[in-house]
């Protein structure tokens, strides 16, 4: 994290990387490379800092994720989440019908 507009100090949140950061009051939410949603309890006064980090739950994003759609969002109070998940119940097989014009003649 780098404060804006002043870029004097930097604070590291995750030691293993993360993406899709979202803020909600005094928490920073991010997703690990293993798709686990994390919550970092932060403070901003007198300076920015991290108090604690805890895992919330495992996410099941579509594979591959659609980069144009938001994969998750968090409510302003940090208590509710909207998450785009994969529907693993659907079949992933493809049926290929060859010579379909002859089927129309029957």
Key features of this structure:
single chain; 106 residues; mainly beta; four-stranded antiparallel sheet; two-stranded antiparallel sheet; 6 strands
Secondary-structure blueprint of this entry?
Blueprint: E1 19-24, E2 27-31, E3 36-43, E4 49-58, E5 72-74, E6 81-83, H1 100-104
Antiparallel strand pairs: 1-2, 2-3, 3-4, 5-6
Could you explain the architecture of this structure?
- By secondary structure, this protein is mainly beta.
- The chain has one domain (1-88).
- 5% of the residues lie in helices and 33% in strands.
- The chain has one helix and six strands.
- The protein has one helix spanning 100-104; strands at 19-24, 27-31, 36-43, 49-58, 72-74, 81-83.
- The strands form two sheets. A four-stranded antiparallel β-sheet has the order 1-2-3-4, with no helix packed on it.
- A hairpin with a 4-residue loop joins β2 and β3 (36-43).
- The longest helix has 5 residues, at 100-104.
- The N and C termini lie far apart (67 Å).
- The mean pLDDT is 79.
